[in-house]
Amino acid sequence: MSRVEYDAFRVDVESKQCSAETQQTFQQHKLKFEQLRQVLDVKLKLLDDNKVLTVNFYHASACTACRARYCFTNSVCLFVHCRYYV
Predict the structure, then answer these.
(1) 16 is in which domain, residue-wise?
(2) How far is CA 19 from CA 3, 9, 12, 22, 25, in A?
(3) Helices (H), 1-86
(4) pTM tops 0.70
(5) I need a labelling partner for 60 at 20 to 30 A (CA). Which of 10, 42, 53, 84 fits?
(6) How far apart are CA 15 and CA 17, in angstroms?
(7) Cβ 2 vs Cβ 30: under 8 Å
């Protein structure tokens, strides 16, 4: 909704058919839009970091499970490891 309001006021300002009140409202909507964009950028960065950490965790878990199965040839060790992470 913020993007629609920002675009509507931007079109008014660009067409030069605006009053001082419209320009002030445009600046308010522009500021609100920029703040929301910054918040979104932060959230997307956190989601990306979380994705990387999760993939690394599951990769390490899979490697450990494979080592338990093939290096130690102990199915009990594999079972305990899989139960711990799942």
Answers:
(1) 2-85
(2) 21, 11, 9, 5, 10
(3) 2-14, 20-70, 75-85
(4) no
(5) 42
(6) 5
(7) no
* Residue type present at position 27: Q
Residue 37: both structure tokens together: 């964009």
Which token pair is 83?
């139960």
Q: Could you report the per-residue pLDDT of 21-68, keeping only the tens digit for each?
A: 777 887 888 888 888 889 988 999 989 889 988 888 888 888 887 776
Cβ(25)–Cβ(9) below 8 Å: yes
Domain count within the chain: 1
